[in-house]
Design brief:
This protein has a single domain, classed as Rossmann fold. 35% of the residues lie in helices and 17% in strands. The chain has 6 helices and 6 strands. A 6-stranded mixed β-sheet has the order 2-3-1-4-5-6, sandwiched between helices. The longest helix has 18 residues. It binds guanosine-5'-diphosphate and magnesium ion. The site of guanosine-5'-diphosphate (GDP) has 17 residues, from helix 1.
């Protein structure tokens, strides 16, 4: 049987989006590229990465990891294994990863895990990407849900958790507070473009 030509064939520059389910990955990709990605009926049920292709630019949306209500633990483990395998197998081609987190929920969730002596899954993922030498941007989404007087405190807490010494403003190449809902994504867009520019690929600006 003939196989459909792979959407990753010939890709030279990959931007990878990763994060828990429901943090806004697909919404962010849609807002950045103007292209709608395949979206599952139920959040997090997709097991496989979905791709967008623009010339030799590959944009990958990984399935959401972590706890998903109504989805069996066994399936969550499969998703996590698939994600880890995908990143390991493609680390050489991935120029930049965008770890999307829900800024409005992160501190509560992370503190709960921390209190149990566990490493929060977002923190684990950031460390994993770093270990593989993958340049990573942390897009802190849903800041519209954070009270303005608490924003700096929250961003400092997130920085601290992922091992970046606060204040968060010391890490302008890494931490990008955004609100896809409010259409405020310029910080992450600028950071992705910076990676294009550093790779002498300003021609990719027309896609993101
Ligand atoms: N309040 C708020 N909601 C958002 C924001 N971005 C995405 N959402 C909502 O979060 C939910 C999950 O978004 P989705 O893109 O499907 O997340 P994914 O599972 O990570 O791909 C949807 O209901 C979005 O409308 C944001 O910046 N603020
Ligand atoms: Mg999605």
């Amino acid at each position: 049987m003939s196989k459909r030509k792979s959407s990753v064939e010939g890709a030279k520059f990959e931007v990878l989006f990763v994060g828990r389910s429901n943090v806004g990955k697909s919404s962010l990709i849609r807002e950045l590229t103007g292209k709608k990605l395949r979206v599952g009926k139920r959040p997090g049920v997709t097991l496989k990465p979905s791709n967008l292709r623009f010339s030799d630019l590959l944009i990958t949306d990984l399935p959401g990891f972590g706890f998903m209500s109504g989805i069996k633990e066994r399936k969550q483990d499969i998703v996590k294994d698939n994600i880890v395998r995908y990143i390991e197998n493609n680390a050489d081609r991935i120029n930049v990863a965008v770890l999307v987190i829900d800024g409005s929920a992160f501190m509560d969730v992370a503190n709960r895990w921390d209190a149990r002596g566990e490493i929060p899954i977002d923190v684990e993922m950031f460390g994993f990407l770093n270990e593989l030498g993958i340049d990573t941007i942390v897009a802190v989404n849903k800041i519209d849900k954070i009270k303005s007087e608490e924003l700096n405190l929250t961003l400092n807490g997130i920085a601290q958790f992922i091992g970046l010494i606060p204040p968060w403003q010391q890490w302008p190449q890494t931490i990008a507070p955004i609100s896809v809902k409010k259409n405020d994504i310029k910080s992450v867009k600028a950071l992705i473009r910076k990676r294009f520019h550093d790779a002498k690929r300003d021609d990719l600006f027309k896609y993101i």
